[in-house]
Write a structure and sequence with these properties.
mainly alpha
Length: 276
């Protein structure tokens, strides 16, 4: 039996598969009046969005606002997304084949990662995969609402990437994980069409920030050239040589690596220089 106040308001709409504006207003007023969301409320909101499939803009806005607040206010630490919350979000958002079910869920996912102080690596990779799929195939929720060619990072993709990478935070941005870095490299290798002009720089700075963090250089600005340890040098060399071509994005990244690194390790052999 449903006893949670917000879930009680959701139930009639869930049964009908549709929601009226006055019902959305009731939910927002109850929530803004200080009614804390409970787990049953969050589950009910996701269930209703599953029926509406992102087709109601007013509910989409409420869905995003309420669930963003619910996750970040209950995170550990507050303002972050805990591992438990990340696992729950993945269970609710994965609509099959690693993609969200609709654009409203995509917007919630991006908003959460854009604003969270900490994000579990698997949830962050799941979010980045949404944009990768859009760029590589021209399909999926992240490509809806516009003509999107395959193998192209377009302006909307770039905006979503910047939000996921928290670019607006500058040097305090979220540091991406190695799986996320691999996804970005897959995009750099696979997106060979007419990409948004800012893609190369965004890719290079994201990978540079990742390498600065993994090489214990947290105090350095991302404007500082990266000098790599052998492990990361080997990874970077392997990633750049993966398809036998140095893309424009990868060239932009190489410009941010300490030139002395080329001669400092056997991992940087002549093959990369020959491909450039």
């Amino acid at each position: 039996m449903v006893t949670s106040p917000i879930a009680t308001l959701v139930q009639p709409a869930l049964e009908r598969g549709a929601i009226e504006e006055f019902e959305i207003g009731q939910m927002r007023r109850r929530w803004q009046g200080g009614e804390p969301l409970q787990a049953a409320d969050a589950d009910a909101l996701f269930a209703l969005q599953g029926r509406l499939a992102g087709r109601n803009p007013s509910f989409n806005a409420l869905f995003e606002d309420m669930l963003t607040a619910y996750v970040l206010e209950n995170g550990e630490p507050k303002g972050g997304i805990s591992r438990e919350q990340g696992a729950w979000l993945l269970s609710m958002l994965d609509g099959g084949e690693g993609l969200v079910a609709n654009v409203a869920e995509l917007e919630l996912l991006i908003k959460l990662i854009e604003t969270a102080g900490s994000v579990p690596a698997d949830l962050a990779s799941f979010a980045l995969h949404q944009i990768q799929h859009s760029a590589m195939t021209g399909e999926g929720p992240a490509a809806l609402g516009r003509i999107h060619f395959s193998r192209v990072v377009d302006a909307r993709d770039l905006t979503n990437l910047a939000r996921l990478l928290q670019v607006a935070r500058g040097d305090k941005r979220r540091i991406i994980s190695r799986p996320e870095a691999d996804i970005l490299f897959e995009m750099a290798e696979g997106c060979t069409g007419t990409n948004d002009p800012a893609w190369d720089g965004l890719f290079a700075e994201a990978i540079q920030a990742h390498l600065l963090a993994t090489n214990d250089t947290h105090g350095l600005s991302i404007s500082t050239p990266v000098k790599l340890d052998d492990h990361d040098s080997a990874w970077l060399s392997r990633r750049i040589q993966h398809d036998g071509i140095v893309s424009r994005a990868e060239r932009a990244l190489l410009a941010l690596v300490d030139p002395r690194q080329m001669a400092a390790t056997n991992n940087w052999d002549k093959s990369i220089c020959q491909m450039i």
